[in-house]
Amino acid sequence: MFTKWCRAFPGLPDQVAEARHFVAALLQESSVVDDAVLVVSELATNAVRHTLSGSAGGWFLVVVVFRADCVRLEVVDMGGDRVPRMRDEASQDGGGRGLVLVSACAKDWGVKGLPSGRTVWADLVRDGV
To answer: What element of type H or E holds 16?
Structure first.
């Protein structure tokens, strides 16, 4: 059995902070709250910066799934030209570290294509499990 919460956000840069607050409020008593806030920040930032979610009228959705062994964070975006991937090194503009951080925090992460976008997800193991 699991519990799922979700919230849609306009695809604006300032909404990344709102997504962090949403996740922090849901996980305030959890051992993974700090990692979860970092992960959702990176995934939401990527959605706004690198997908159609950041265009006029765009949006992204944050989903938090409480499972017996972990917390799954998902950011659903409107898709774009490139598939999210980890870079070996940071790009010249100082970017490119987001998915490296996600990978460091998560037990597993991945990308799932949707008909009109994609979901980038990360599983965080809760202490004591």
So the answer is: helix 15-26
